[in-house]
Design goal:
- It is built from 4 helices and 10 strands, in the order ααβααβββββββββ.
- By secondary structure, the chain is an alpha+beta fold.
- Strand 7 and strand 8 form a beta hairpin.
- It is globular, with a radius of gyration of 15 Å.
């Protein structure tokens, strides 16, 4: 019921397929695509104050419902600017095996198209915490982990 507000959680295969459904010029971003974005935002922070104090501040969006702020960001991020237009909100992740959710209001999790080199059952995700200035990377199970998706043009 909350998918219209917070978005949906996808398995790895679903994430790859959902971007493909947008057309042949769309794809799920790779780990490297995310790192290019992170480097670009880091460079902008040094010269353009509208990007804010941290990479997370440039990616996260402030959200309110009936003028009530849905969550509080921590001062370590600086002012939330959403200068990238990504409008990321901390929706956590889903455990698709147990049908449980974790991390709501604490962090956002996004699939990358990059499978883990060491284990064919794992792929990389990107995490953005509401109290950490950086973007983090983790390896997670492709079938039981549910994360959000952002699609990009090729």
């Amino acid at each position: 019921v909350m998918s219209y507000v917070l978005g949906r959680y996808y398995s790895y295969e679903e994430a790859v397929n959902v971007c493909g459904k947008l057309g042949s010029d769309w794809k799920l971003p790779s780990k490297e695509d995310w790192e290019i974005l992170e480097a670009y935002v880091s460079d902008q922070i040094a010269t353009d104050p509208t990007y804010g104090k941290s990479v997370a501040a440039a990616l996260l969006g402030d959200a309110a419902f009936n003028t009530i702020t849905m969550w509080e960001y921590w001062p370590t991020l600086g002012t939330i600017t959403n200068s990238t237009g990504m409008s990321i909100i901390p929706t956590g992740y889903a455990n698709l095996a147990s049908k449980t959710f974790d991390g709501l209001y604490s962090y956002a999790t996004f699939w990358t198209s990059t499978p883990a080199e060491s284990d064919e059952n794992l792929a990389y995700c990107k995490y953005i915490y509401c109290d950490q200035p950086d973007v983090f990377t983790a390896k997670v199970d492709k079938k039981t982990f549910g994360a959000s998706v952002r699609c990009i043009r090729k």
